[in-house]
Amino acid sequence: MLFLMVPAAGAASPQNEKAASAPPSWAYPVSPPNDVPLKNDGAAHQVPGSPKSLTVPQILDSFNIPDWHPEGHPALPQVVEHGRKPGVRGCGYCHLPNGQGRPENASLAGLPALYIEQQVRDIRSGARRSSEPKMGPPNNMIMVAEEASDDEVKSAAAYFSSLNLKPWIKVVETDTVPKTKVSGSMLVLADGGGTEPIGNRIIETPVNREQTELRDDASGFIAYVPPGSIKKGEALVTTGGGKTTQCAICHGPELRGLGPVPRLAGRSPSYLFRQLYDLQHGTRKGPWSDLMKAPVAHFSEDDLVSIAAYLASREP
After folding, report:
1. Which of the four, 182, 211, 220, 254, has the lowest number of CB atoms within 10 Å?
2. Residue 228 backbone zone (phi > 0: left; psi -120 to 50: alpha; other: beta)
3. What is the CATH number of the domain that holds 243?
């Protein structure tokens, strides 16, 4: 995710990265040891609106990705559907066949092809890394980026850029949220239920965990955000709040992208927060990402939560 804004007039560019600190665990979920989100029960599974029946081994086959709703997207390129053994998983396994993505990775639908290609190059070169080195999905993407050919990257980028990002995440302001745990590199409802104060967090979880674990690309997410965060985020995004300039200057008037600059509206707030945090802390670099160092330098963590909440609440 590239956030491309210019510094506010008179704002000083940071000379040093933010002091190293542990990133917030709610935004960087690390799966516990021996985590098995989907156990092989020997049964054939189905999801709403699809005539297919797939077993758990079929659903977990990242070289022959589960495509429950092929009528909902164009024909899949080889690299998106099957990848290439041994190291290039089918892109649609993590990012889903329709490009909608999940909180632990990126929604690619509708992103500019040039932008996608540049991000893969940055990951391949080591310029783009996660602030939480133990988080699984970024490490998986590193392996794919290092193994994928330029032609495979171009094919995948062309495909995902041709798609439209659909409404996928319901953003809800609340003081109290369901208790959650980490499984499958995302937050899911805790066993035994219960609630707790949200604090300064974004709690993004599947609307239907079973369908999400079956990798149903028609089952979305709900994101709980702190009360007042959407309004605060709107002020920061639209005016800069004295800390930067308006995001729309580079990302377009509706925050849906402009030329090679990516859209922000309607994307996962967990993912958006991570990218802002990574940019701010210097773990995400690259020829385009470096342009964001000064614009994000003066945001507090609370600001980042509010910005992500507002952006996710917008229509894609």
Report:
1. 254
2. left
3. 1.10.760.10
**By C-alpha distance, which of 273, 307, 97, 269 is closest to 169?**
269
CA 228, 101, 239, 4 torsion: positive or negative?
positive
Q: What is the DSSP letter of 73?
A: S
Biggest distance spanned by C-alpha atoms of the chain: 63
Kindly give, in sequence order, each residue whose CB lies less than 8 Å from that of residue 37, ignoring residues fewer than 6 positions away: 183, 184, 188, 213
3-state secondary structure of 250: helix
Structural domain tally of the chain?
A: 1
Determine how many CB atoms are found less than 10 A away from the CB of residue 44: 11
- Residue that the structure tokens 């958006």 belong to: 272
**Considering the domain boundaries, does residue 33 fall inside one?**
no
Tokens of 53: 């029946």
Helices 150-161 and 113-125: angle between axes, nearest 10 degrees: 140
What is the C-alpha separation between 271 and 103, in angstroms, rounded?
6
The answer to whether residue 11 sits within a structural domain is no
Instruction: Give the whole-angstrom CA distance, residue 85 versus residue 62.
Output: 10
Tell me the residue range of the domain where 298 lies.
44-168+215-313
Q: What is the pLDDT of residues 122-168, one digit of tens each?
A: 999 999 999 999 999 999 999 999 999 999 999 999 999 999 999 99
Helix segments in the chain, DSSP class H: 56-59, 78-81, 91-95, 113-125, 136-147, 150-161, 209-213, 229-239, 248-251, 269-281, 293-296, 301-313
pLDDT for 118:
96
Angle at 177 between CA 264 and CA 279, to 5 degrees: 35
Total length of the chain: 316
The mean pLDDT value for 47-66 works out to: 98
What are the structure tokens assigned to 103, written together?
A: 């909180």
For residue 30, being part of any structural domain is answered with no
Q: Could you tell me if residue 96 is inside a domain? A: yes
In degrees rounded to 5, what are phi and psi of residue 187? -85, 130
Token pair listed for 258: 């402009």
